[in-house]
TrEMBL record:
GO BP terms in the entry: CAAX-box protein maturation; proteolysis
CAAX prenyl protease 2/Lysostaphin resistance protein A-like domain segment(s): 57-194
Protein name as catalogued: CAAX protease self-immunity
Record-level Gene Ontology MF annotations: endopeptidase activity
Keyword Ribosomal protein: no
Keyword set, alphabetical order: Hydrolase, Membrane, Protease, Transmembrane, Transmembrane helix
């Protein structure tokens, strides 16, 4: 199986790797994804404190980190008893992408099938394969729900841009959540949003 770390137990290798990935995400944001958006003259990626009202800042720094971590990564413990907490994600996906009900339903059915098939092989923990698939699924969904951040007319292009902008960060937060815990991923999510708003305030 896999090893789990808990928050603040002095695991310096995890803290160091988290910090390195954090810096990598910021570099990726400003040297890869942002230049792509600038090339296509897309708006919505450069929000800073001056662009948000008090409610917007409160949402970005507190509400979003707490709710998004609970909904999208709360179940990523590796334990079977927590896995079905993925259902709220499926419901959100059905609501947002209602025009693609059949596709979403098929994906959701496949996930539930994997869970029950996996149950035949392990008792308390899900398998590595199901864990990795769940992390990838959750990260893609987390990325796609941000498609309205980009002010463009093409729905499919906005989905693609959402993957470009958010998928690396989503995978990173899933890693932090699994290795460190939900509190750690929530704090990291807050710091990421704070860093991006602050840097945007300086450079844009």
């Amino acid at each position: 199986m896999y090893n789990k770390f808990t928050l603040f137990q002095g695991n310096t290798s995890f803290i160091l790797s988290s910090f390195i990935f954090y810096i990598f995400i910021l570099i990726y944001t400003y040297f890869v994804s942002d230049p792509i958006f600038q090339f296509y003259e897309i708006e919505g990626y450069d929000d800073s404190f001056r662009d948000l009202d008090n409610i917007g800042v409160f949402s970005a720094l507190l509400i979003a980190p707490v709710l998004e971590e609970l909904i999208f990564r709360g179940y990523l413990t590796g334990y079977r008893k927590h896995f079905l907490l993925i259902i709220p994600q499926i419901i959100i996906m059905l609501i947002i992408f209602y025009n693609y009900f059949i596709i979403v339903s098929l994906i959701s059915t496949f996930l539930i099938f994997l869970f029950y098939y996996d149950k035949k092989r392990t008792e308390d923990l899900i398998s590595n394969q199901l864990l990795y698939f769940s992390i990838f699924f959750t990260s893609i969904l987390f990325s796609l729900i941000h498609y309205e951040n980009f002010q463009i007319d093409s729905f499919y292009f906005s989905l693609m841009l959402s993957l470009i902008a958010f998928l690396p960060g989503a995978l990173y937060l899933a890693y932090v959540r699994f290795k460190g815990g939900l509190i750690y991923s929530t704090i990291t999510h807050f710091l990421m949003n704070l860093s991006i708003l602050t840097i945007n305030e300086i450079i844009y």
